[in-house]
Amino acid sequence: MRVVVTGAGGMLGQDLVDACVGRSQEVFALNRAELDITDEVACEEVMAELHPDAVVNCAAWTDVDGAEADEEGAMAVNELGAGNLAAAAARHGARIAYISSDYVFDGSKRTPYVESDITAALSAYGRSKAAGETATAFANDRHMIVRSSWLFGTRGGNFVETMLRLASERPEVVVVSDQVAAPTYTRHLAAALAELVETDQYGIHHVAAAGQCSWFDYAQEIFDIEGTDCRVMAGTTEMLGRPAPRPAFSVLGTERHPAPLLPRWGDGLRQYLRERRMTA
Hints:
Layout: E1 2-6, H1 11-22, E2 26-30, H2 40-50, E3 54-57, H3 64-69, H4 71-91, E4 95-101, H5 124-139, E5 143-148, E6 151-152, H6 159-169, E7 172-176, E8 180-181, E9 184-185, H7 186-196, E10 203-206, E11 213-214, H8 215-226, E12 231-235, H9 237-240, H10 265-279
Parallel strand pairs: 1-2, 1-3, 3-4, 4-5, 5-10, 6-9, 7-12
Antiparallel strand pairs: 8-11
Helix pairs in contact: 1-7, 2-4, 4-5, 8-10
């Protein structure tokens, strides 16, 4: 199977390339310099040259707060670019997977969001990801919209690294306790994606770690596992005053059967920290 991975230089993209290779897929890893998905002609040329069976779109604007100041820029990548890539893939007979986010929801539920729930993004970033879902689905009937949450991995900056850095600099940190989801290890998500693109299970998929926690719980677990002497103090979203609004509750569940099921978030965190220690 021939698979094109866009955004292959990113945290998830790099793990996905490894996962595809592990399944003996022929992988074409394209970073932003090799393919700018906002360039419609470039997308067409790549599909015509490589003739993939599947495309996984990991290219994205991921700066949640930055999108509030430049929603047009976020839309250019997450909506227009996604549509360009999906349409080019369709013209050359390829299915496409679009990586989306729990931030497409407003957080008003108190039970896990499932695939049929209506999106209602609070932030510019969330709106751009929801728009990308629509653009992808409109352009390519053979689409997989894969929503996940709170990604962390060994190949990019993430919350775990931020917390450990702060703990080395100060005796205490303030972390919000009023946002709840499931931190998802990119190796686990990548393995599920590599398997999913071999199937014809089209439509929306929720693929996130099992369980749930707040950012406060997450930070406390990081320090507990690492034996870090840093106190975690609970704060609120309003206290921290970030530019982009976040959903208070964005745990993802699934109503699909069969569905890719990932390990619990704590298991992913422990695996990440083990790998981190091995490469230190």
